[in-house]
Specification:
The protein has 349 residues and is of the alpha+beta class. It folds into two domains: 143 residues, no CATH class; 166 residues. Helix content is 40%, strand content 19%. The strands form four sheets. A five-stranded antiparallel sheet has the order 2-4-3-12-13. A hairpin with a 4-residue loop joins strand 6 and strand 7. It is globular. It starts with 26 loop residues before the first strand and ends with a strand. The structure holds zinc ion (ZN).
Length: 349
C-alpha cells in the first residue's frame, strides 16, 4: 500500500509538469549530465545516496574520535555529494565529491572502468581471475602491507617482463585491483589483489612468483586462487570492487545477514581508507587501451526551464524545491533501513 506520508514521485509524471521557472528562472549547469529516464537507475542512485550519507556520518564520528579534522572534512564532502541536483532536459547535474568513500562517485568510476576495459578483455581467449593474498595484519601495519603488496607485484611483473624480453618466459597481461577484507572476530585485515589475466599460464606463473616472493612466512598456496572466467562482465565487476567489500554492499555477507548478525564495519573501513590514501588501487599491466577521443568537458552554462532538487534524508530522496515531488522514487526495504540504523559498527577495528 502506498505510504501517504511519502511525497509524490516524479516517475510517471510528465516532465512538462516540472517546467517551473517562476522564482528561479535561470539555473547553472556544468558537464554532460546523467540520464534520468531509467527509473531503475534512478532508484539505485537514491539507494546509493542513502547508504553513502549514512556511512559518511559514521565515518565523521570516527574521525572526530580520532581527532582527525582533515579526515572529517573529507567525509563531510561525501555527505554533501550530489545533495543538490539540477534537472534540465531529461538530464541531471550536480557536484561530485570524488572521494573513495563515496558510493555515488564510486559507481561512476566503476562504470567508466567497465566501459574502457570490457571491449579489450572480452577478446582474450581464456581469461582467468586470480586472487593473490598475504598474511592478515593489524590496522597499524595496513599501509605498510598495502605498499608491500603493490611493490611485490611490480617486482614480479618487471622480472617476468625481462625474462620474456630475453626470450625465455611468457609476458604477463591483465588488470589488477587492491582490496582488503576485515575480520571482526580476529580484528585483522586481509590485503589482497584481484586480477584478471589473459590465460591460465599467466595465472599459474603469477601464483608461483607470488609464493616465491613472499615466502611461506607471508603467503600460503591455499590462500591463493585462480579460476577460469566465463562471464567477463561479472568478473570485471567482481574485480573492481574498489577497496573494500564492506562499503559497497552492506548486504554482502548473505549468511550473516540471514542470521541477523551482519554488521557494517565502519571503523575498519575508516582504517582501510586511511591506509589506501595515495595508493593506486586499480591498474593495468602488459597492454595499452585503444586511443579514444576525450570529449571536451562542457563548461558552466545558464539554462531556463530547469528544476532544482535537494536531498532530504527523512525521505531518502531528493525533493523538488518548488512542488515537493521526489526525484528517484526510491524507498528502502525494511532490512536495509534497519541495518543502517542499528548495525553500523563504529568501534571494532
Ligand atoms: Zn561523491
Amino acid at each position: 500500500m502506498a505510504d501517504t506520508n511519502q511525497p509524490a514521485n516524479l516517475c510517471g509524471n510528465s516532465l512538462n509538469t516540472l517546467a517551473y521557472n517562476g522564482t528561479t528562472p535561470v539555473g547553472v549547469i556544468t558537464g554532460e549530465g546523467s540520464d534520468m529516464s531509467n527509473s531503475k537507475a534512478m532508484k539505485s542512485k537514491g539507494k546509493r545516496k542513502l547508504i553513502s550519507q549514512t556511512m559518511a556520518l559514521s565515518l565523521i564520528d570516527i574521525a572526530k574520535r580520532k581527532e582527525a579534522p582533515q579526515q572529517a572534512k573529507t567525509y563531510w564532502n561525501t555527505y554533501h555529494c550530489q545533495n543538490k541536483i539540477t534537472s534540465h532536459d531529461g538530464k541531471l547535474y550536480g557536484k561530485y565529491c570524488k572521494n573513495r568513500s563515496c558510493t555515488l562517485c564510486l559507481s561512476i568510476r566503476k562504470a567508466e572502468i567497465i566501459n574502457k576495459y570490457f571491449p579489450v578483455i572480452k577478446e582474450w581467449q581464456e581469461p582467468y581471475l586470480v586472487t593473490l593474498t598475504i598474511k592478515a595484519c593489524s590496522a597499524k601495519r595496513l599501509n605498510y602491507m598495502f605498499k608491500g603488496v603493490l611493490r611485490g607485484f611490480s617486482q614480479i611483473y618487471a622480472k617476468c617482463k625481462k625474462r620474456n624480453q630475453r626470450g625465455n618466459g611468457i609476458k604477463l597481461m591483465g588488470i589488477k585491483s587492491l582490496e582488503c577484507n576485515f575480520n571482526p572476530v580476529k580484528r585483522t585485515y586481509n590485503p589482497h589483489l584481484h586480477l584478471i589475466v589473459a590465460n591460465k599460464e599467466m595465472a599459474e606463473l603469477l601464483i608461483d612468483e607470488w609464493l616465491q616472493k613472499f615466502t611461506s612466512k607471508f603467503a600460503t598456496r591455499k590462500a591463493q586462487d585462480y579460476r577460469r572466467i566465463y562471464n567477463i562482465e561479472t568478473a570485471l565487476i567482481e574485480t573492481i570492487k574498489y577497496g573494500s567489500k564492506i562499503f559497497t554492499e552492506p548486504d554482502v555477507n548473505k549468511e550473516a545477514e540471514n542470521k541477523g548478525t551482519a554488521m557494517i564495519q565502519a571503523a575498519a573501513l575508516y582504517n582501510i581508507f586511511e591506509a589506501m590514501k595515495g595508493l593506486r588501487i586499480f591498474d593495468r599491466f602488459g597492454f595499452n587501451l585503444p586511443k579514444t577521443h576525450q570529449k571536451e568537458r562542457k563548461g558552466a552554462r545558464a539554462v531556463t526551464g530547469h528544476s532544482e532538487w535537494v536531498f532530504m534524508a527523512k525521505y531518502h530522496d531528493w525533493l523538488n524545491i518548488e512542488n515537493e515531488l521526489t526525484l528517484s522514487g526510491y524507498i528502502p526495504d525494511a532490512k536495509l533501513a534497519y541495518m543502517l540504523k542499528n548495525y553500523i559498527d563504529v568501534q571494532t577495528e
